[in-house]
Structures are given as C-alpha cells and as structure tokens.
Design goal:
- Helix 4 packs antiparallel against helix 5, helix 7 crosses helix 9 and helix 8 crosses helix 9.
- This protein is α/β, with parallel strands linked by helices.
- It is built from 20 helices and 14 strands.
- It is globular.
- The two termini are about 50 Å apart.
Length: about 525
Amino acid sequence: MHKTFKNRLLADQKNFAGVRRCMNADQFREIALQTNSVDSFIQMLRENTEKLKLPAYVSELAAMEGHIFKLANRLISVKPYSEGHIINPDLSVFSNTWKHLAGILIGATHGCQPVKEDEQVMVWPSPNENKPMSRAITSEDLLVMKMTMENLSSKQVAEQTDTNIAAVNGAVLQALDSGIIWGPKSKIIRAHSLETRSVSNKNKTVSKAFGTSRVFALQWHITQACDLNCRHCYDRTPTEPLTLSREIAILDSLYDFCNTHNLFGQVSFTGGNPLLHPNFHRLYKEASDRGFFIGILGNPTSRDEIESLIAIQQPSFYQVSLEGLKKHNDYIRGTGHFQRILAFLKILKQTGIYSKIMLTLTRDNLDQVIPLGEFLKDRIDLYTFNRLSLMGEGANLIMADPSKYSRFLEQYMNAAQSHKTFDLKDNLFNILLHKNQSTLFGGCTGYGCGAAFNFVSILATGEVHACRKFPSPIGDICKQSLTEIYHSKIADRYRKGAEECSSCQLNLVCRGCMASAHSYGLDVFKKKDPYCFI
C-alpha cells in the first residue's frame, strides 16, 4: 500500500499539481519518498515549509489536493443518490487562512494569487463523471447545506428568507446536479437508453446524465389569442379558455407528478400570446406558489407588465422571436415588429430578466441566421433557432434545403465559438461534435429529443402532445392525470423515437427531430430525421 501511494504520487504530474508548482522537482520527490500516505505527505509539507522556503499556504493547498488525490484514485466511493436529501458524505470543507487557493486547484492562471484572508473551500466528487470538483463556498451552498441538515422544506426556507420557492428550488437543484448534496433518483429515465454504449470518440461514452432528468417542463399554450399574424403560425384555431379551476387543476397535476417522480417542475407559458389570457396573472401566481420555475414564450409587453411579474417571481427567461433581419422579419411577423423587439430587449436587460431570441429556420432566412445573431450579441442572453414545421400557416413556407444543412450547422457552430450568445439547440449538432472529437451536448431539450420525456405540450383545450411542432396527441389533461398520460403506451412510443435511430451511438443525445420527419410525410416512429447526415 505504501509503495502504491508513492508510485501514484510520483508517476503522474497531475497529482498535487498545485503543490508541485510551489517547489522544485527534487524537493517534491524528496518529501514524497519519506511518506506513506496522503496524511503523512501533508504533515511532512507542514513541518518543512519554513526549511524549504515554501509559500505559507502550501499545507492548506496540500490538504485540499490530498482529498482530490483520494477521489481521483478511487480511494473514496461515489454513490450520488439517497432516499432523502443529505450532504455528500465525500464532500470535505477546508477552512483556509489563505484566499484563492481553489483557483490554484483547477489550474486557473488569472485572479488566483493567494491572499492572506479566511476562505472556506469545498472539495467533492462529481456525481456523473466521478472526477474531483472544488470551489469556494457560496452563501447559496451554505443555505442548501443548512436546509439539508435541518430537514427544512423549500417553502419553509422561502418564508424565512423572504424569497419565492422556485429560487430555493433552484439552489437545491444546482446542489444536486453538482453533487454537493445527494437526493432521490429521478424516476424519469430513458428505458432504452444507450448510456453504457461506447461512442468512438477518443473512447468516451455518452454521459449517463443524459439518460435521466431532474426537471420536467410543461409548455403550456394557455390561449390561442395573439396580437400578431405571423406567416408561419402553427395554429390559429380559436378556442374558449378552460375554466380557472380546471387550469389550476393542471398545475396541481404537474405538482403531483413532480412529487411522485422526484422532479422539479417548470411551466413555460405560451400561446398565442400568453399575456392575453384573462387569468394569466392568477395562473402565474399559482405556478409560483407551487415552486415551479417559470418561463414565458410570448410577445413584447410593457415595463409595467414585466415588473408586475417580477413582484410575484422573476421569470427564468422571457423568449421572443425574430425571423431574420428587419426586412424579412417584418415580412413574416408584421411591420414594425423588429423595432418593437429591440425596444423590448432593453426592458428585459434593465429588469435583469434572461432574454432569449428564437428564429424559425426556413429556406429564405438561412443566410440571415448568423448576421442576425451577430447584430443581437450585445442585446440578448441567448440566441437559437428551430427548423420550420409545415403545420398551419407554416405549410405555405419552404423548409431549408437538407443538402445544405450540415454546412449551415458548421458555419453556425464556428460562429458560436466567438459569440457566447449563440446556443446549440438542434440535436444534429452532435454529429459534427462527434466527428470533431468534441464533447457532446444535450441537444434540443438537454436530453436529445425530449418529446414526452422531460417535457410535454398542453394546448388551450387541455389536449396534451409529445411536441407542439407536429400532431402528437398523447392524452387529455382534463380527463387524465399527467401521471397517467406520461406512462401511457403512446407517450412511451414517442419517447423511443424513430426505429432507424435506435442503434445509433448518438441516440441518447439526438434522435433527430420528429417534427421534420412529419413535415416530409414520414412515419415518425420508423423513419429518422430527413436532415440527418450520418
């Protein structure tokens, strides 16, 4: 065991890399050869700091790197789930007398010069990649640890801290995702995932994290009413709104579903224009009272309207649409729309709301996507696109040419490297990432095609669809619970995706776009996305 420790310590320059930078190679080797464990190595450093003229903070740095060494060499086991919320047993907190040591641990070169000042740093194993993590402890970390140790609910903490439940849930979710705390395993899991199948990408595998989600979202089209008349609108069918009691029951159904499946809920209010719904503010408040994250996919509105929403709960995001540069956008969405969006983006920035721009991709705006994104780069937080679906008025437009699509994705991905607002959303980006030996991403919804997996769409009538972009009915929320709908055979069939995608090594983060397959008249359960270029 002692020989193994020394061999491990000396064989890899990554072991105690920060400590190594504090001394010469001969000094490091001399101390290493006199030790037989992590603890004795740290003690030897502490005793020889002055003699070897090492930085005063070296023993504190070594203590943290010692824990990282144990994690990296599998001397500590990692089991990221538990029946209830607990602090990760393998997380260690270091109360240092020197600040910025966490930056040294991760190899940062800027802003991490040690300063003589107290700071608490935590080191723990990543829940999915089983690699060591470290950073200075934040107030949010302390809050989550306190509520975990005292078994406090998010509602109790929200009342004590005068905030909304979703803000507390967000801190808990972040702690769970990062592995700072453990909790019950989500019960929405890809039944036929390829989480153990190797991807021929430098011998990497698709992360198991893509096979399960902690968040479930309703994209709720609460109304068909709209103050625009867009040329690609999916559905203009007039409908009568559901009763308020029925709408609140929908939120209760989501709440019950999340509780029984160990999930955090999100409601994305959309339409039409959701703000035109007569009960919008009441539904927004009801969603907030249940601790849901709330997003809005709508049209520009007034600053007063935005501030009234913030008074209830800050939206997680507000998404509006542009279809190209000014001339083309106003042709699609109406004269003056482009300028109204720009004015509204200023309101979102001034009020601190995360802003998203969505573009519907067609043949006629393909060459405007990147120029528009570059124009918007300092005005928004995120910019992305969806391919046109030939539904409703959209059937009168023309989809992008599949033969040109891979080249377009390459150009967009290259632009994204220099524009942080450019977001990768289309699942097919993973084909390029795979070819480039780059890290794969979660695709359209964070889990490849998320239709009937980590989200569903509810129409103003209560009809539930796997995806709003094409007819994919899986139930009626006015007649069934969300749990019944989610576990139905038809919902499971949409989750599986196309049979032609089932053997693909990118299946877990892709499965293409069923709406595109539908637009081409294909059987979405059998045929893959016609834009796929594998």
